[in-house]
Design goal:
Elements: H1 3-21, H2 33-48, E1 54-55, E2 61-62, H3 63-76, H4 80-106, H5 108-120, H6 122-127, H7 136-154, H8 157-169, H9 180-193, H10 201-228, H11 231-234, H12 236-240, H13 248-261, H14 283-298, H15 303-314, H16 317-321, H17 336-358, H18 362-390, H19 395-400, H20 403-414, E3 420-424, E4 431-432, E5 435-436, H21 440-445, E6 451-454, E7 469-473, H22 478-487, E8 492-495, E9 500-504
Parallel strand pairs: 3-6, 3-7
Antiparallel strand pairs: 1-2, 4-5, 7-9, 8-9
Helix pairs in contact: 1-4, 1-5, 2-3, 3-4, 4-5, 4-7, 5-17, 7-8, 8-10, 9-10, 9-15, 14-15, 14-17, 15-17
Length: about 500
Amino acid sequence: MSKTTFLILVFILAVSAFFRFYKITETPPGLYPDEAANGVNALDAITQNDWRIFYPENNGREGLFINIQSLSVKIFGAYPWSLRIVSGFFGVLTVLGTFFLTRLFWGRATALTASYLMAISFWPVNFSRIGFRAIMLPFILVWAFYFLWSGLAQKSRLRVLIAGLIYGAGFHTYISWRVSPLLVVLMFIAFLIAKRSVFDKKIVLRALFIFGAGAFVTMLPLMLYYAREPADFLGRAAQVSIFNSPSPARAFAESAVKTLGMFNFYGDGNWRHNLAGRAELFWPIGIGFLVGLAYAARHLTSPKNFFLVAWFFIMLLPNFLAPEGAPHALRALGALPAIFILSAVGLDQLYGRLQNKLGKIKRIKKELAVLSVLILAFMGLWEYRTYFVVWGNKMEVVNNFDTRLTHIADYLNRLNPDVKKYVVVNESGSIIKNAPIQAQPIMFLSYAQPINYLTPDKLDSLPIGLKNAVIVPTKIDADIISRIKQKYPQAREANLITFRTFRIK
């Protein structure tokens, strides 16, 4: 690697880190219950030495990401940002891995472009700032494939083994990973049918065995768990499958159309995942993606092009097979590296064609290069504005991250320890630790507090003579408020904007 390339890469990684850690204590606001559930499990792992390979609550979650989060919580404490910086860490490493993988295929310039686009783009930035385990998918895929391809090129058994070990760890991340073996199979088939000058068949077959052995080692503990608990294997996937639809074929087609259109036309409508409805790719990047995809599709006989096209479509299968919430940016994270590599390929193709049309006019070529850098800088500024200024200040984002729950936790933490604390979770959702999931942000942020969590049906079980206590409904509800007032007429009601409290002396 030349000094210039190294310095540019360091700059890109610095930009990537800035986008992922800047204002991490403020944006996103609050703490979404799914993030908090991870945090509660992380605290249980620390305080009770309850480290699990799989956490069955909340539709089931693979344990690797949560266990890594627990290390962050142990070091930094129970804060929303201590959960989210883990995602940022994997986000930055994915940018780095994208550079190395792309350089194997297309060289330095395209690799720098691909890594820069991933560093600044709203889609990967957003999920690198939320404590969801799916962010590990692109990280593991890009590094597993880097070591595999470089191992084949260098005839290095060690690199291929490392690739397999990394790949097998992917089964411990997110359910969408389960379609990735199809990509691996197609990739090795492409290796075997490619010309001998690309990869020797004996080397490929040996690599397949070594890669498979490495993957088997790291995936085995989870497979043994599923053998003991087969119901946990499907979990959420069974609930959102197209096969729950009256017409699976129609559901598949509709989901596929929405998913394929999300990159350039209409993106995820969930405010947690996106500036609702905005195309997942900023339009110049989106144009590059379409050009790159078309270019790779026209040259499928090349293993690298076949691999990228297959990567794109196969890692979108979870989206095609789960129509709920389509288009769904979270489920598509496995395709993220392929998309940005193709975008860089497309932009480089456009740049090369423009250069050719200009002929040998040296001065114009230099100006074109400067203009390209300015355009890339503009993209970064635009995406900064989109995330931190526009999306980060939307009230819809505040509401979707349930900030009132963090406000409740802050209030309870400020009370004297001798005050009895009751939280009425008057919202539906999956039950975790005997309370609906909406209680999880409070549980995580107030983990050390002796708080009693009640569902509305248990409200009547509270003693009439309750003293030195506070009752807080998680949601302002006329019926719940009326029942509390009726049972404790002496209670002093306080309206704290996003929630209400009832203090009993």
